[in-house]
């Protein structure tokens, strides 16, 4: 079961750059009975290896904006270290309520952004013309990247969630990168961030190395497959996929926060949205005007 979870989440991470911590941690808690703090630490440890494989493959395929990734890392690395260091202090001060509040806030942000991204992809296709492969980073872009990385790194250090989903929000809404660049830059940056957070949790004794090894058996080939799919999927398919995964991550976080959401719903809602996106795509293709047929030689001569 753990290997299958790793395979599925690995494919998802390689394809969209998101869903690792947001889905794997709840799966470990709900289905494997792992203690939350061990699930968080183990998730970060296996995720470091998985996203390193994915980040390297994306880098080789030239889907990584290296400058944005490094500026994000300048903020997220100290943020993650601070999050892990403060975890015990915050738990003593606020108990489990602090984790619940953070998870609900993140889930709300993912829901709002996921709906916006999905709505834009399905019902406002003309807006995607503003997407770009890269940009010239000015001082404001750099400050925004460091600040975004600092906040997200802290959340990741405390909860193991957000390295993919929240970074993707910024890359989509702030930098307006194309879907492939969002995925590649996201996975590459997350690989750096997860190594720092994973080592910090390992030092704190929150990592089950045997469990992490079992997950890696499935996640490493999964992310390899996912990266190959990400560069072959059409843009019209990858955009709604990003929005669907954001919403799926929100459901996973709410489940982790204790909301009465059955695990079947976490999988059924994204599947239903995927079917809706596919149906709308087919309807648009049928309604699109067909190119004029070139006249045959006999018709041209007459």
Segments where pLDDT lies below 50 for 5+ residues? none
The value of Rg in angstroms is: 20 Å
Strand content: under 5%
Oligomer: single chain
Q: On the 0-100 scale, what is the average pLDDT?
A: 79
Number of domains: 1
End-to-end separation in angstroms reads 69 Å
What's this entry about, in short?
79% of the residues lie in helices and 0% in strands.
Description:
With 302 residues, the chain is mostly helical. It has one domain. Helix content is 79%, strand content 0%. It has twelve helices and no strands. Helix 1 (2-16) packs parallel to helix 9 and helix 4 packs across helix 6 (139-159). The radius of gyration is 20 Å and the shape is globular.
Write the layout of secondary structure elements.
Elements: H1 2-16, H2 20-31, H3 36-60, H4 66-94, H5 96-123, H6 139-159, H7 165-173, H8 179-203, H9 209-230, H10 235-256, H11 263-287, H12 297-301
Helix pairs in contact: 1-2, 1-8, 1-9, 2-3, 2-10, 3-8, 3-9, 4-6, 4-8, 5-7, 5-10, 7-8, 10-11
